[in-house]
């Protein structure tokens, strides 16, 4: 059994600590993508301002 099997299918195997990794990873990636899209939209909308300050 590989670590990926535990990571992705922890609930079906009864390995409870691993069951939270996949949803947590998915939510984290979703939040990061939304943050990047929002930041890029703000940069495009305010193109006359500097990005870093």
Biggest pleated sheet: none
Q: What is the oligomeric state here?
A: single chain
Helix share bin? 55-70%
Indicate the mean pLDDT. 77
Number of discrete domains:
1
What structural class should be given to the helix and strand makeup? mainly alpha
Specify Rg, calculated over alpha carbons: 18 Å
Number of helices: 2
Poorly predicted runs are none
Note the overall shape.
Answer: rod-shaped
End-to-end gap: 49 Å
Order of helical and strand elements = HH
How much strand? under 5%
Number of beta-strand segments: 0
Describe this structure in words.
The chain contains 2 helices and no strands. It has one domain. By secondary structure, it is mostly helical. The protein is rod-shaped, with a radius of gyration of 18 Å. The chain crosses the membrane at residues 20-40. Keywords: Membrane, Transmembrane, Transmembrane helix.
Question: Any descriptors?
Answer:
mainly alpha, 53 residues
Question: How would you concisely characterize the structure shown here?
Answer:
The chain is mostly helical and 53 residues long.
Topology:
Blueprint: H1 3-13, H2 21-45
Keywords: Membrane, Transmembrane, Transmembrane helix
Transmembrane segments: 20-40
